[in-house]
Specification:
It is a single chain. The chain is an all-alpha fold. It has two domains: 95 residues, no CATH class; 71 residues, no CATH class. It starts with 6 loop residues before the first helix and ends in a 5-residue tail after the last helix. It is 70% helix and 0% strand.
């Protein structure tokens, strides 16, 4: 009897390992990017604005910074994204409160939620339920948090959200 796996079995084992490694790398890259963008937001707020919510020279300063960063590091550092990084730090000033399993796209969606309690709830749900950024955007768009708060019967609202939220890819 041959104890060695068939070529198909071997292929599937190797394929699974490669897929797991790629997912792990993607999670590591996302975590590093979110961490970096949070720190960039912190630097913009603390060093260039001395803690004010907006620098007196804000827009022009961010434009100049954007040009220099884009020249050195490529896309991803346009003025709008720098403003998003600044807003990210303002919304989540404590790094330990940031959920590393969420991507920068998740956080850009969360920045649009003005209510800080709702934002924190959506962040925790997105992480806990493994929502894709599209699923998160959909839940925010349908006011899932607000409907749960106002509903006397929570189960039907939660069931509807689960039914219409595909698992993340």
């Amino acid at each position: 009897m041959n104890d060695f796996p068939t070529t198909d079995t071997l292929y599937h084992h190797i394929s699974e390992l490669v897929q797991q490694a790629r997912q792990q790398i993607q999670r590591s890259v996302n975590t590093a990017m979110v961490h970096t963008y949070w720190h960039i937001g912190r630097l913009i707020i603390e060093h260039e604005q001395q803690g004010d919510s907006r620098a007196a020279y804000g827009r022009q300063q961010l434009e100049q910074l954007s040009i220099r960063l884009t020249g050195e590091f490529g896309k991803g550092f346009d003025a709008r994204n720098l403003r998003n990084m600044r807003a990210f730090y303002q919304c989540f000033p404590i790094w330990n409160a940031v959920r590393p399993e969420l991507s920068w796209t998740h956080y850009r969606v969360l920045l649009r939620v003005e209510n800080s309690d709702a934002r924190a709830w959506y962040m925790d749900e997105a992480a806990g339920q493994h929502w894709s950024s599209r699923a998160l955007e959909r839940q925010i768009g349908t006011l899932y948090y607000e409907r749960l708060l106002s509903s006397r019967e929570k189960d039907p609202v939660a069931a509807e959200a689960q039914e219409k939220t595909p698992p993340s890819a």
